[in-house]
Amino acid sequence: MTRPTPETLAHSARRARTVTEPAGDADHTTPPRAAAPATPAVKPSGPVPVSGAGSLVRSLEALGVDVVFGIPGGAILPAYDPLYDSSVRHILVRHEQGAGHAATGYAQATGRVGVCIATSGPGATNLVTPIADAYMDSVPIVAITGQVARPMIGTDAFQEADIQGITLPITKHNFLVQNAEEIPQVLAEAFHLAATGRPGPVLVDIPKDVLQAATTFSWPPTLDLPGYRPTLHPHGKQIREAARLMSGARRPVLYVGGGVLKAGATESLRRLAELTGIPVVTTLMALGAFPDSHRQHLGMPGMHGTVAAVYGLQKADLIVALGARFDDRVTGKLDSFAPDATVVHADIDPAEIGKNRHADVPIVGDARHVIDELIAAVTTEQKAGRRTDLHDWWHQLDDLRERYPLGYDEPADGTLSPQYVIKRLGEIVGPDAIYVAGVGQHQMWASQFISYEKPGTWLNSGGLGTMGYAVPAAMGAKAGRPDTVVWAVDGDGCFQMTNQELATCALEGIPVKIAVINNGNLGMVRQWQTLFYEGRYSNTELGTHKHRIPDFVKLAEALGCVGLRCENAADVDKTIEAAMAITDAPVVIDFTVGKDAMVWPMVAAGTSNDEIMFARGVRPAFDEDDI
Questions:
Q1: What is the pTM of this model?
Q2: Catalytic residue among 1, 158, 237, 554
Q3: Secondary structure class of 164 (helix, strand, coil)
Q4: Which among 21, 61, 159, 541 is annotated as catalytic?
Q5: Is the peptide bond before 226 cis (omega within 30 degrees of 0)?
Q6: Is 478 a catalytic residue?
Q7: Selected catalytic residue, list 246, 303, 497, 524
Q8: Residues 526-579 pLDDT 10s
Q9: Does residue 208 have an active-site annotation?
Q10: Which run of H or of E encompasses 249?
Q11: Active site residue 443
Protein backbone atom coordinates (compact mmCIF):
# COMPACT_ATOMS: atom_id res chain seq x y z
CA MET A 1 0.00 0.00 0.00
CA THR A 2 1.02 3.64 -0.33
CA ARG A 3 1.53 5.09 3.09
CA PRO A 4 0.18 8.55 3.80
CA THR A 5 2.77 11.18 4.56
CA PRO A 6 3.21 12.46 8.09
CA GLU A 7 1.57 15.69 6.99
CA THR A 8 -1.49 13.82 5.73
CA LEU A 9 -1.67 11.64 8.83
CA ALA A 10 -1.61 14.67 11.09
CA HIS A 11 -4.02 16.74 8.98
CA SER A 12 -6.91 16.40 11.41
CA ALA A 13 -4.72 17.25 14.39
CA ARG A 14 -5.12 20.95 13.52
CA ARG A 15 -3.95 22.25 16.85
CA ALA A 16 -1.64 19.36 17.73
CA ARG A 17 1.32 20.46 19.74
CA THR A 18 4.28 18.68 21.22
CA VAL A 19 3.25 16.75 24.31
CA THR A 20 5.77 17.12 27.08
CA GLU A 21 7.48 14.06 28.46
CA PRO A 22 6.85 13.15 32.11
CA ALA A 23 9.21 14.43 34.73
CA GLY A 24 12.18 12.21 35.41
CA ASP A 25 15.33 10.95 33.80
CA ALA A 26 15.43 10.59 30.05
CA ASP A 27 15.52 6.82 30.28
CA HIS A 28 12.51 6.84 32.62
CA THR A 29 14.32 5.17 35.48
CA THR A 30 12.36 7.62 37.59
CA PRO A 31 8.79 6.38 37.26
CA PRO A 32 5.80 8.45 36.28
CA ARG A 33 3.86 9.66 39.29
CA ALA A 34 0.40 11.13 39.45
CA ALA A 35 0.68 14.82 40.17
CA ALA A 36 -2.14 16.68 41.84
CA PRO A 37 -2.79 20.16 40.49
CA ALA A 38 -2.12 21.78 43.85
CA THR A 39 -0.39 24.69 42.11
CA PRO A 40 -2.26 26.29 39.20
CA ALA A 41 -0.68 25.76 35.80
CA VAL A 42 -1.46 29.37 34.86
CA LYS A 43 -1.15 32.67 36.65
CA PRO A 44 -4.08 33.61 38.88
CA SER A 45 -6.72 35.52 36.95
CA GLY A 46 -9.64 37.70 37.92
CA PRO A 47 -13.23 37.16 36.80
CA VAL A 48 -13.63 36.96 33.01
CA PRO A 49 -17.09 36.77 31.37
CA VAL A 50 -17.52 33.36 29.69
CA SER A 51 -20.12 30.69 29.12
CA GLY A 52 -20.14 27.57 31.27
CA ALA A 53 -18.50 25.78 28.36
CA GLY A 54 -15.82 28.44 28.18
CA SER A 55 -15.24 28.05 31.91
CA LEU A 56 -14.84 24.29 31.44
CA VAL A 57 -12.23 24.67 28.71
CA ARG A 58 -10.36 27.40 30.58
CA SER A 59 -10.31 25.18 33.66
CA LEU A 60 -8.75 22.36 31.64
CA GLU A 61 -6.11 24.77 30.35
CA ALA A 62 -5.42 26.06 33.86
CA LEU A 63 -5.00 22.50 35.11
CA GLY A 64 -2.28 21.91 32.53
CA VAL A 65 -4.24 19.47 30.39
CA ASP A 66 -2.55 19.04 27.02
CA VAL A 67 -4.71 16.37 25.39
CA VAL A 68 -8.23 15.01 25.76
CA PHE A 69 -9.91 12.08 24.00
CA GLY A 70 -13.55 12.32 23.04
CA ILE A 71 -16.52 12.47 20.67
CA PRO A 72 -18.97 15.40 20.45
CA GLY A 73 -22.73 15.00 20.72
CA GLY A 74 -25.77 17.09 21.45
CA ALA A 75 -25.49 17.57 25.22
CA ILE A 76 -21.72 18.16 25.26
CA LEU A 77 -21.65 20.16 22.02
CA PRO A 78 -21.49 23.60 23.71
CA ALA A 79 -18.11 22.60 25.15
CA TYR A 80 -16.71 21.85 21.71
CA ASP A 81 -17.06 25.43 20.49
CA PRO A 82 -14.49 26.99 22.89
CA LEU A 83 -12.41 23.83 22.54
CA TYR A 84 -11.98 24.76 18.86
CA ASP A 85 -9.75 27.69 19.85
CA SER A 86 -8.10 26.05 22.86
CA SER A 87 -4.49 25.04 23.41
CA VAL A 88 -5.83 21.67 24.55
CA ARG A 89 -5.45 19.06 21.82
CA HIS A 90 -8.63 17.09 21.23
CA ILE A 91 -8.23 13.61 19.72
CA LEU A 92 -11.42 12.53 17.98
CA VAL A 93 -11.87 8.83 18.73
CA ARG A 94 -14.21 6.42 16.95
CA HIS A 95 -15.93 5.07 20.06
CA GLU A 96 -16.31 6.45 23.56
CA GLN A 97 -14.82 3.27 25.03
CA GLY A 98 -11.71 4.10 23.03
CA ALA A 99 -11.65 7.56 24.61
CA GLY A 100 -11.78 6.10 28.10
CA HIS A 101 -9.06 3.51 27.53
CA ALA A 102 -6.90 6.12 25.77
CA ALA A 103 -7.19 8.37 28.82
CA THR A 104 -6.18 5.41 30.98
CA GLY A 105 -3.20 4.56 28.77
CA TYR A 106 -2.12 8.20 28.81
CA ALA A 107 -2.33 8.28 32.61
CA GLN A 108 -0.50 4.98 33.09
CA ALA A 109 2.31 5.99 30.74
CA THR A 110 2.80 9.55 32.01
CA GLY A 111 1.61 9.54 35.61
CA ARG A 112 -0.64 12.50 34.80
CA VAL A 113 -4.43 12.62 34.88
CA GLY A 114 -6.01 11.36 31.67
CA VAL A 115 -9.13 13.10 30.35
CA CYS A 116 -11.98 11.78 28.22
CA ILE A 117 -15.15 13.51 27.04
CA ALA A 118 -18.52 12.11 25.95
CA THR A 119 -22.03 13.28 25.43
CA SER A 120 -25.09 12.23 27.44
CA GLY A 121 -26.94 8.91 27.35
CA PRO A 122 -25.18 6.29 25.22
CA GLY A 123 -22.07 8.42 24.93
CA ALA A 124 -21.71 8.47 28.69
CA THR A 125 -22.66 4.81 29.19
CA ASN A 126 -20.02 3.79 26.64
CA LEU A 127 -17.51 5.14 29.16
CA VAL A 128 -18.67 2.76 31.88
CA THR A 129 -16.24 -0.05 30.98
CA PRO A 130 -13.09 2.11 30.89
CA ILE A 131 -14.18 3.90 34.06
CA ALA A 132 -14.61 0.55 35.82
CA ASP A 133 -11.27 -0.55 34.40
CA ALA A 134 -9.53 2.56 35.76
CA TYR A 135 -11.23 2.08 39.12
CA MET A 136 -10.01 -1.50 39.48
CA ASP A 137 -6.44 -0.56 38.54
CA SER A 138 -6.32 2.76 40.46
CA VAL A 139 -5.69 4.92 37.39
CA PRO A 140 -6.24 8.71 37.62
CA ILE A 141 -8.68 9.79 34.91
CA VAL A 142 -11.38 12.46 34.75
CA ALA A 143 -14.39 11.66 32.58
CA ILE A 144 -16.41 14.71 31.50
CA THR A 145 -19.91 13.99 30.24
CA GLY A 146 -22.69 16.15 28.90
CA GLN A 147 -26.13 15.78 30.43
CA VAL A 148 -29.57 16.84 29.28
CA ALA A 149 -30.67 20.29 30.48
CA ARG A 150 -31.60 20.54 34.14
CA PRO A 151 -35.37 20.90 33.57
CA MET A 152 -35.31 17.66 31.54
CA ILE A 153 -33.46 15.53 34.11
CA GLY A 154 -35.71 12.75 35.36
CA THR A 155 -38.16 12.97 32.43
CA ASP A 156 -36.59 10.22 30.30
CA ALA A 157 -35.59 12.89 27.83
CA PHE A 158 -33.84 11.98 24.60
CA GLN A 159 -30.37 10.61 25.37
CA GLU A 160 -30.81 10.94 29.11
CA ALA A 161 -29.03 8.53 31.45
CA ASP A 162 -28.26 8.91 35.14
CA ILE A 163 -24.53 8.51 34.58
CA GLN A 164 -23.80 9.80 38.07
CA GLY A 165 -25.87 7.01 39.59
CA ILE A 166 -24.61 4.42 37.11
CA THR A 167 -20.96 5.13 37.88
CA LEU A 168 -21.31 5.65 41.63
CA PRO A 169 -19.83 2.21 42.48
CA ILE A 170 -16.96 2.50 39.98
CA THR A 171 -15.68 6.03 40.55
CA LYS A 172 -13.60 7.45 43.33
CA HIS A 173 -16.06 10.34 43.30
CA ASN A 174 -18.44 11.94 40.84
CA PHE A 175 -20.16 15.27 40.38
CA LEU A 176 -23.36 16.55 38.79
CA VAL A 177 -22.69 20.25 38.20
CA GLN A 178 -25.70 22.33 39.18
CA ASN A 179 -24.62 25.80 38.06
CA ALA A 180 -21.96 27.29 35.83
CA GLU A 181 -20.25 29.23 38.62
CA GLU A 182 -18.99 26.03 40.25
CA ILE A 183 -17.29 24.58 37.17
CA PRO A 184 -13.71 25.70 38.00
CA GLN A 185 -13.98 24.44 41.56
CA VAL A 186 -15.49 21.11 40.50
CA LEU A 187 -12.80 20.54 37.85
CA ALA A 188 -10.00 21.40 40.27
CA GLU A 189 -11.47 19.09 42.90
CA ALA A 190 -11.97 16.32 40.35
CA PHE A 191 -8.32 16.42 39.29
CA HIS A 192 -7.15 16.59 42.90
CA LEU A 193 -9.25 13.58 43.86
CA ALA A 194 -8.19 11.58 40.82
CA ALA A 195 -4.47 12.12 41.35
CA THR A 196 -3.99 12.03 45.12
CA GLY A 197 -4.24 9.29 47.71
CA ARG A 198 -5.16 6.07 45.96
CA PRO A 199 -5.62 7.32 42.37
CA GLY A 200 -8.83 6.60 40.53
CA PRO A 201 -11.46 7.82 38.08
CA VAL A 202 -13.67 10.84 38.77
CA LEU A 203 -16.71 11.72 36.67
CA VAL A 204 -17.99 15.25 36.07
CA ASP A 205 -21.49 15.38 34.56
CA ILE A 206 -22.56 18.81 33.24
CA PRO A 207 -26.08 19.61 32.00
CA LYS A 208 -26.30 21.30 28.62
CA ASP A 209 -27.98 24.44 29.95
CA VAL A 210 -25.17 24.84 32.49
CA LEU A 211 -22.66 24.74 29.65
CA GLN A 212 -24.69 27.39 27.80
CA ALA A 213 -25.22 29.67 30.82
CA ALA A 214 -23.38 32.97 31.21
CA THR A 215 -20.87 33.02 34.05
CA THR A 216 -17.40 34.27 34.92
CA PHE A 217 -14.11 32.41 35.10
CA SER A 218 -11.37 33.06 37.65
CA TRP A 219 -8.46 30.96 38.80
CA PRO A 220 -7.47 29.36 41.09
CA PRO A 221 -10.61 28.21 42.86
CA THR A 222 -10.74 27.15 46.51
CA LEU A 223 -11.00 23.41 47.04
CA ASP A 224 -13.66 22.32 49.51
CA LEU A 225 -13.05 18.67 50.38
CA PRO A 226 -13.29 18.60 54.18
CA GLY A 227 -13.52 14.81 54.51
CA TYR A 228 -10.72 13.98 52.12
CA ARG A 229 -7.29 13.75 53.74
CA PRO A 230 -5.31 10.72 52.56
CA THR A 231 -2.76 9.48 55.05
CA LEU A 232 0.66 9.78 53.45
CA HIS A 233 3.05 9.18 56.34
CA PRO A 234 2.86 5.87 58.20
CA HIS A 235 2.74 5.44 61.96
CA GLY A 236 6.26 5.12 63.36
CA LYS A 237 5.38 2.29 65.75
CA GLN A 238 4.06 0.15 62.90
CA ILE A 239 7.17 0.84 60.85
CA ARG A 240 9.43 -0.19 63.73
CA GLU A 241 7.46 -3.40 64.25
CA ALA A 242 7.67 -4.23 60.55
CA ALA A 243 11.42 -3.62 60.58
CA ARG A 244 11.78 -5.89 63.62
CA LEU A 245 9.94 -8.68 61.84
CA MET A 246 11.96 -8.21 58.65
CA SER A 247 15.18 -8.44 60.65
CA GLY A 248 14.19 -11.74 62.26
CA ALA A 249 12.25 -13.63 59.59
CA ARG A 250 13.80 -16.73 58.05
CA ARG A 251 11.58 -16.90 54.94
CA PRO A 252 10.48 -13.32 54.16
CA VAL A 253 9.09 -12.06 50.83
CA LEU A 254 8.43 -8.53 49.58
CA TYR A 255 5.05 -8.74 47.82
CA VAL A 256 4.97 -5.67 45.56
CA GLY A 257 1.81 -4.33 43.94
CA GLY A 258 0.92 -1.52 41.57
CA GLY A 259 0.77 0.99 44.42
CA VAL A 260 4.56 1.12 44.40
CA LEU A 261 4.47 2.35 40.80
CA LYS A 262 1.69 4.82 41.56
CA ALA A 263 3.76 6.27 44.40
CA GLY A 264 6.93 6.59 42.33
CA ALA A 265 8.67 4.40 44.89
CA THR A 266 10.67 2.05 42.65
CA GLU A 267 14.11 3.38 43.52
CA SER A 268 13.27 3.18 47.21
CA LEU A 269 12.01 -0.37 46.72
CA ARG A 270 15.30 -1.40 45.18
CA ARG A 271 17.23 0.10 48.09
CA LEU A 272 15.05 -1.72 50.62
CA ALA A 273 15.39 -5.04 48.80
CA GLU A 274 19.15 -4.78 48.51
CA LEU A 275 19.50 -3.61 52.11
CA THR A 276 17.60 -6.61 53.45
CA GLY A 277 18.37 -9.24 50.82
CA ILE A 278 14.71 -10.26 50.86
CA PRO A 279 13.23 -11.91 47.72
CA VAL A 280 10.83 -9.76 45.67
CA VAL A 281 7.71 -10.74 43.75
CA THR A 282 5.87 -8.21 41.58
CA THR A 283 2.22 -8.58 40.65
CA LEU A 284 0.87 -8.21 37.12
CA MET A 285 0.17 -4.54 37.85
CA ALA A 286 3.66 -3.98 39.27
CA LEU A 287 5.84 -5.32 36.45
CA GLY A 288 8.71 -2.88 35.98
CA ALA A 289 8.62 -1.74 39.61
CA PHE A 290 11.63 -3.98 40.27
CA PRO A 291 13.94 -5.02 37.42
CA ASP A 292 13.15 -8.47 36.05
CA SER A 293 16.88 -9.09 35.69
CA HIS A 294 17.64 -8.34 39.34
CA ARG A 295 19.09 -11.25 41.29
CA GLN A 296 16.43 -10.91 44.02
CA HIS A 297 13.43 -10.91 41.68
CA LEU A 298 11.49 -14.18 41.78
CA GLY A 299 9.04 -13.02 39.12
CA MET A 300 5.28 -12.64 39.11
CA PRO A 301 3.15 -14.55 41.63
CA GLY A 302 -0.34 -15.87 41.12
CA MET A 303 -2.38 -17.93 38.69
CA HIS A 304 0.26 -17.80 35.93
CA GLY A 305 3.23 -16.76 38.02
CA THR A 306 6.60 -18.44 38.29
CA VAL A 307 6.93 -21.52 40.47
CA ALA A 308 9.51 -19.74 42.64
CA ALA A 309 7.26 -16.70 43.18
CA VAL A 310 4.16 -18.76 43.96
CA TYR A 311 5.95 -21.07 46.36
CA GLY A 312 7.94 -18.20 47.85
CA LEU A 313 4.72 -16.54 48.96
CA GLN A 314 3.07 -19.80 49.90
CA LYS A 315 5.88 -20.95 52.20
CA ALA A 316 6.91 -17.54 53.57
CA ASP A 317 6.99 -16.89 57.29
CA LEU A 318 6.73 -13.13 56.64
CA ILE A 319 4.98 -11.32 53.78
CA VAL A 320 5.60 -7.59 53.47
CA ALA A 321 2.87 -6.40 51.11
CA LEU A 322 3.56 -2.99 49.58
CA GLY A 323 0.74 -1.40 47.58
CA ALA A 324 -0.84 -4.79 46.86
CA ARG A 325 -4.31 -6.03 47.67
CA PHE A 326 -4.17 -9.84 48.05
CA ASP A 327 -6.48 -10.37 45.09
CA ASP A 328 -7.75 -13.81 44.19
CA ARG A 329 -5.44 -14.21 41.19
CA VAL A 330 -2.47 -14.00 43.57
CA THR A 331 -3.79 -15.86 46.60
CA GLY A 332 -5.65 -18.72 44.93
CA LYS A 333 -7.88 -20.39 47.49
CA LEU A 334 -7.67 -17.76 50.19
CA ASP A 335 -7.98 -19.95 53.29
CA SER A 336 -4.95 -21.99 52.20
CA PHE A 337 -2.78 -19.04 51.16
CA ALA A 338 0.56 -18.62 52.98
CA PRO A 339 -0.68 -20.40 56.13
CA ASP A 340 2.51 -19.80 58.15
CA ALA A 341 3.09 -16.16 57.20
CA THR A 342 2.92 -13.14 59.43
CA VAL A 343 1.62 -10.28 57.26
CA VAL A 344 2.80 -6.69 57.14
CA HIS A 345 0.37 -4.86 54.85
CA ALA A 346 1.13 -1.31 53.74
CA ASP A 347 -1.33 0.58 51.54
CA ILE A 348 -2.52 4.15 51.12
CA ASP A 349 -6.12 2.90 51.10
CA PRO A 350 -7.07 1.71 54.58
CA ALA A 351 -10.04 -0.18 53.12
CA GLU A 352 -7.65 -2.65 51.47
CA ILE A 353 -5.83 -3.57 54.67
CA GLY A 354 -7.34 -6.72 56.13
CA LYS A 355 -10.02 -6.90 53.42
CA ASN A 356 -8.90 -10.29 52.10
CA ARG A 357 -6.10 -11.37 54.44
CA HIS A 358 -5.65 -10.41 58.08
CA ALA A 359 -2.80 -7.96 58.55
CA ASP A 360 -0.70 -8.55 61.67
CA VAL A 361 1.01 -5.20 61.15
CA PRO A 362 -1.26 -2.77 59.25
CA ILE A 363 0.47 0.29 57.83
CA VAL A 364 -1.52 3.09 56.19
CA GLY A 365 0.56 5.43 54.07
CA ASP A 366 1.98 6.34 50.69
CA ALA A 367 4.29 3.57 49.46
CA ARG A 368 7.24 5.90 48.94
CA HIS A 369 7.08 7.21 52.50
CA VAL A 370 6.47 3.72 53.89
CA ILE A 371 9.46 2.23 52.09
CA ASP A 372 11.76 5.15 52.91
CA GLU A 373 10.87 4.86 56.60
CA LEU A 374 11.30 1.08 56.49
CA ILE A 375 14.80 1.61 55.10
CA ALA A 376 15.66 3.86 58.03
CA ALA A 377 14.14 1.48 60.58
CA VAL A 378 15.82 -1.62 59.12
CA THR A 379 19.15 0.22 59.05
CA THR A 380 18.73 0.91 62.77
CA GLU A 381 18.00 -2.79 63.37
CA GLN A 382 21.08 -3.83 61.45
CA LYS A 383 23.32 -1.38 63.31
CA ALA A 384 22.10 -3.00 66.51
CA GLY A 385 23.25 -6.37 65.16
CA ARG A 386 19.79 -7.70 64.36
CA ARG A 387 19.97 -9.20 60.88
CA THR A 388 18.57 -12.50 59.73
CA ASP A 389 20.43 -15.15 57.73
CA LEU A 390 18.58 -15.89 54.50
CA HIS A 391 21.14 -18.30 53.05
CA ASP A 392 18.95 -21.40 53.40
CA TRP A 393 15.88 -19.56 52.06
CA TRP A 394 17.73 -18.40 48.98
CA HIS A 395 19.18 -21.88 48.46
CA GLN A 396 15.66 -23.31 48.31
CA LEU A 397 14.33 -20.56 46.04
CA ASP A 398 17.32 -20.74 43.68
CA ASP A 399 16.81 -24.48 43.40
CA LEU A 400 13.20 -23.87 42.34
CA ARG A 401 14.25 -21.22 39.83
CA GLU A 402 16.78 -23.59 38.31
CA ARG A 403 14.42 -26.57 38.10
CA TYR A 404 11.30 -24.70 37.00
CA PRO A 405 12.23 -21.74 34.78
CA LEU A 406 9.71 -20.11 32.50
CA GLY A 407 9.72 -21.84 29.15
CA TYR A 408 7.56 -23.37 26.46
CA ASP A 409 7.43 -26.27 24.02
CA GLU A 410 7.53 -25.69 20.30
CA PRO A 411 4.21 -26.65 18.67
CA ALA A 412 4.24 -30.26 17.50
CA ASP A 413 2.40 -29.37 14.29
CA GLY A 414 5.09 -26.94 13.15
CA THR A 415 2.97 -23.81 13.60
CA LEU A 416 4.45 -20.56 14.88
CA SER A 417 4.89 -20.44 18.66
CA PRO A 418 3.22 -17.38 20.23
CA GLN A 419 5.70 -17.43 23.10
CA TYR A 420 8.59 -17.26 20.64
CA VAL A 421 7.01 -14.27 18.89
CA ILE A 422 6.56 -12.34 22.12
CA LYS A 423 10.00 -13.26 23.45
CA ARG A 424 11.68 -12.05 20.27
CA LEU A 425 9.56 -8.88 20.29
CA GLY A 426 10.87 -7.99 23.73
CA GLU A 427 14.46 -8.83 22.81
CA ILE A 428 14.44 -6.84 19.56
CA VAL A 429 12.47 -3.81 20.76
CA GLY A 430 14.19 -3.63 24.16
CA PRO A 431 13.35 -2.40 27.66
CA ASP A 432 12.85 1.29 26.84
CA ALA A 433 9.63 0.71 24.90
CA ILE A 434 6.12 0.72 26.36
CA TYR A 435 4.30 -2.60 26.01
CA VAL A 436 0.50 -2.58 26.22
CA ALA A 437 -1.38 -5.87 26.44
CA GLY A 438 -4.93 -6.93 25.86
CA VAL A 439 -6.44 -9.66 28.03
CA GLY A 440 -5.95 -13.39 27.74
CA GLN A 441 -3.14 -15.76 26.85
CA HIS A 442 -1.16 -13.12 24.99
CA GLN A 443 -1.32 -10.89 28.08
CA MET A 444 0.17 -13.63 30.24
CA TRP A 445 2.87 -14.49 27.71
CA ALA A 446 3.74 -10.80 27.41
CA SER A 447 4.08 -10.62 31.20
CA GLN A 448 6.28 -13.73 31.22
CA PHE A 449 8.53 -13.46 28.16
CA ILE A 450 9.25 -9.73 27.90
CA SER A 451 11.77 -8.39 30.40
CA TYR A 452 10.52 -5.28 32.23
CA GLU A 453 13.44 -3.34 33.63
CA LYS A 454 11.92 0.11 34.11
CA PRO A 455 8.71 1.56 35.54
CA GLY A 456 6.00 2.78 33.22
CA THR A 457 6.83 0.28 30.46
CA TRP A 458 4.04 -2.26 31.03
CA LEU A 459 0.37 -1.31 30.72
CA ASN A 460 -2.52 -3.73 30.96
CA SER A 461 -5.99 -4.21 32.32
CA GLY A 462 -5.29 -6.20 35.47
CA GLY A 463 -8.31 -5.96 37.73
CA LEU A 464 -11.21 -5.81 35.27
CA GLY A 465 -9.53 -7.87 32.54
CA THR A 466 -10.97 -5.77 29.72
CA MET A 467 -10.81 -7.20 26.22
CA GLY A 468 -10.35 -4.29 23.82
CA TYR A 469 -8.10 -2.34 26.16
CA ALA A 470 -4.82 -2.58 24.23
CA VAL A 471 -5.26 -0.57 21.02
CA PRO A 472 -6.82 2.59 22.53
CA ALA A 473 -4.57 2.41 25.62
CA ALA A 474 -1.54 2.22 23.33
CA MET A 475 -2.88 5.24 21.46
CA GLY A 476 -3.17 7.17 24.72
CA ALA A 477 0.30 6.10 25.86
CA LYS A 478 1.84 7.22 22.57
CA ALA A 479 0.00 10.55 22.74
CA GLY A 480 1.43 11.07 26.21
CA ARG A 481 4.96 9.91 25.41
CA PRO A 482 5.37 10.54 21.67
CA ASP A 483 9.13 9.94 21.68
CA THR A 484 8.77 6.44 23.13
CA VAL A 485 8.15 3.33 21.01
CA VAL A 486 4.76 1.85 21.94
CA TRP A 487 3.80 -1.74 21.10
CA ALA A 488 0.41 -3.26 21.77
CA VAL A 489 0.42 -7.04 22.15
CA ASP A 490 -3.14 -8.03 21.38
CA GLY A 491 -5.16 -11.16 20.68
CA ASP A 492 -7.31 -11.68 17.63
CA GLY A 493 -10.39 -11.58 19.87
CA CYS A 494 -9.44 -8.43 21.79
CA PHE A 495 -8.25 -6.70 18.63
CA GLN A 496 -11.67 -6.98 16.99
CA MET A 497 -13.32 -5.08 19.82
CA THR A 498 -11.60 -1.69 19.50
CA ASN A 499 -9.38 -1.75 16.39
CA GLN A 500 -11.39 1.11 14.90
CA GLU A 501 -9.16 3.42 16.96
CA LEU A 502 -6.37 2.67 14.48
CA ALA A 503 -8.20 5.05 12.16
CA THR A 504 -7.82 7.68 14.87
CA CYS A 505 -4.11 6.85 15.15
CA ALA A 506 -3.62 7.12 11.38
CA LEU A 507 -5.37 10.46 11.06
CA GLU A 508 -3.90 11.97 14.23
CA GLY A 509 -0.32 10.92 13.48
CA ILE A 510 0.03 8.48 16.38
CA PRO A 511 2.27 5.69 15.05
CA VAL A 512 1.61 2.84 17.45
CA LYS A 513 2.62 -0.72 16.59
CA ILE A 514 0.26 -3.66 17.09
CA ALA A 515 1.34 -7.30 17.34
CA VAL A 516 -1.80 -9.39 16.89
CA ILE A 517 -1.21 -12.87 18.31
CA ASN A 518 -3.70 -14.56 16.01
CA ASN A 519 -4.48 -18.11 17.12
CA GLY A 520 -7.93 -18.15 15.55
CA ASN A 521 -9.64 -18.54 18.91
CA LEU A 522 -10.54 -16.95 22.18
CA GLY A 523 -7.34 -18.49 23.46
CA MET A 524 -7.66 -18.36 27.26
CA VAL A 525 -11.25 -19.57 27.13
CA ARG A 526 -10.15 -22.40 24.82
CA GLN A 527 -7.39 -23.31 27.30
CA TRP A 528 -9.96 -23.64 30.07
CA GLN A 529 -12.20 -25.69 27.78
CA THR A 530 -9.25 -27.99 27.10
CA LEU A 531 -8.40 -28.43 30.77
CA PHE A 532 -11.81 -28.33 32.48
CA TYR A 533 -14.48 -29.01 29.82
CA GLU A 534 -13.06 -32.12 28.12
CA GLY A 535 -12.11 -30.24 24.97
CA ARG A 536 -15.67 -29.16 24.17
CA TYR A 537 -14.84 -25.96 22.29
CA SER A 538 -18.14 -24.15 22.52
CA ASN A 539 -18.10 -20.81 20.68
CA THR A 540 -14.41 -20.02 20.95
CA GLU A 541 -13.31 -20.34 17.30
CA LEU A 542 -13.23 -16.90 15.70
CA GLY A 543 -12.68 -17.74 12.04
CA THR A 544 -9.55 -15.64 11.68
CA HIS A 545 -7.60 -18.80 10.74
CA LYS A 546 -10.05 -20.98 8.86
CA HIS A 547 -11.71 -18.20 6.88
CA ARG A 548 -9.31 -15.30 7.45
CA ILE A 549 -12.31 -13.17 8.38
CA PRO A 550 -11.30 -10.51 8.88
CA ASP A 551 -8.04 -10.40 6.99
CA PHE A 552 -6.02 -8.35 9.47
CA VAL A 553 -3.58 -7.08 6.86
CA LYS A 554 -6.35 -5.75 4.64
CA LEU A 555 -8.16 -4.38 7.68
CA ALA A 556 -5.04 -2.54 8.79
CA GLU A 557 -4.63 -0.99 5.36
CA ALA A 558 -8.29 0.02 5.29
CA LEU A 559 -7.74 1.83 8.60
CA GLY A 560 -4.77 3.80 7.26
CA CYS A 561 -2.07 1.56 8.75
CA VAL A 562 0.67 -0.63 7.38
CA GLY A 563 -0.34 -4.28 7.48
CA LEU A 564 2.19 -7.13 7.74
CA ARG A 565 1.83 -10.87 8.25
CA CYS A 566 4.19 -13.45 9.73
CA GLU A 567 3.44 -17.19 9.74
CA ASN A 568 6.75 -18.89 10.51
CA ALA A 569 9.63 -18.53 12.95
CA ALA A 570 12.17 -17.72 10.25
CA ASP A 571 10.35 -14.46 9.44
CA VAL A 572 9.70 -13.22 12.98
CA ASP A 573 12.81 -11.09 13.41
CA LYS A 574 12.70 -9.40 10.02
CA THR A 575 8.98 -8.69 10.39
CA ILE A 576 9.47 -7.00 13.76
CA GLU A 577 12.45 -5.06 12.38
CA ALA A 578 10.38 -3.96 9.38
CA ALA A 579 7.72 -2.64 11.74
CA MET A 580 10.33 -0.83 13.81
CA ALA A 581 11.64 0.89 10.68
CA ILE A 582 8.23 2.45 9.96
CA THR A 583 7.82 5.64 11.97
CA ASP A 584 5.26 7.61 9.97
CA ALA A 585 2.21 5.36 10.30
CA PRO A 586 0.66 2.81 12.65
CA VAL A 587 1.72 -0.78 11.94
CA VAL A 588 -0.27 -3.97 12.46
CA ILE A 589 1.39 -7.39 12.30
CA ASP A 590 -0.76 -10.49 11.99
CA PHE A 591 1.33 -13.15 13.74
CA THR A 592 -0.55 -16.29 12.72
CA VAL A 593 0.27 -18.77 15.49
CA GLY A 594 -0.86 -22.23 16.56
CA LYS A 595 -4.15 -22.61 18.39
CA ASP A 596 -3.12 -25.15 21.03
CA ALA A 597 -0.41 -23.29 22.98
CA MET A 598 -1.18 -22.87 26.68
CA VAL A 599 -0.05 -20.58 29.45
CA TRP A 600 2.04 -22.33 32.11
CA PRO A 601 2.60 -22.44 35.06
CA MET A 602 -1.00 -22.37 36.23
CA VAL A 603 -2.95 -22.40 39.46
CA ALA A 604 -6.50 -23.35 38.53
CA ALA A 605 -9.17 -20.93 39.74
CA GLY A 606 -10.46 -21.80 43.19
CA THR A 607 -7.57 -24.11 44.04
CA SER A 608 -4.70 -23.67 46.43
CA ASN A 609 -1.36 -22.30 45.35
CA ASP A 610 0.03 -25.59 46.66
CA GLU A 611 -1.56 -27.19 43.58
CA ILE A 612 0.40 -25.17 41.03
CA MET A 613 1.03 -27.01 37.76
CA PHE A 614 4.34 -26.39 36.00
CA ALA A 615 2.92 -27.82 32.76
CA ARG A 616 -0.02 -29.99 31.83
CA GLY A 617 0.12 -33.01 34.09
CA VAL A 618 3.37 -31.86 35.72
CA ARG A 619 3.36 -30.87 39.39
CA PRO A 620 6.58 -29.38 40.77
CA ALA A 621 8.52 -31.87 42.86
CA PHE A 622 9.02 -30.12 46.17
CA ASP A 623 10.36 -31.45 49.45
CA GLU A 624 8.19 -29.97 52.18
CA ASP A 625 10.84 -30.77 54.78
CA ASP A 626 13.17 -28.32 53.06
CA ILE A 627 10.78 -25.55 53.99
A1: 0.92
A2: 158
A3: helix
A4: 159
A5: no
A6: no
A7: 524
A8: 999 999 999 999 999 999 999 999 999 999 999 999 999 999 999 999 999 999
A9: yes
A10: none
A11: no
